[in-house]
Amino acid sequence: MSRRDALFLRLTAAWTLLIWAVFVKNQVGDDTTSTRFKVVHLTLAVVSMGLAVGVWRVASRSSRREREHEGAPGPGGPGLARR
After folding, report:
1. Which of 10, 42, 62, 72 has CB 3.0 to 4.6 Å from 1, enough for a Cys bridge?
2. How many structural domains does the chain have?
3. pLDDT tens, 64-83?
4. Residues 6+ apart with CB under 8 A from 10
5. What is the pTM of this model?
């Protein structure tokens, strides 16, 4: 995965976390919405935030692998014996 793609995924994950965190904060203190509404939307928030964390981890893992492979020698090079 390119660095640009990983950055896009991280930005999307961060935005998702921010939006849902603000929404949850606003819902906790709101007495005008029904309990059913709160339960459904808090469940959606938890699932979405969990997915965002997963996307962040995938992007980070991919970036870390890219950096490791950039410095690795090609096939048959001195680094082959280390693996």
Report:
1. 62
2. 1
3. 777 676 665 555 555 555 44
4. 55, 56, 59, 60
5. 0.70
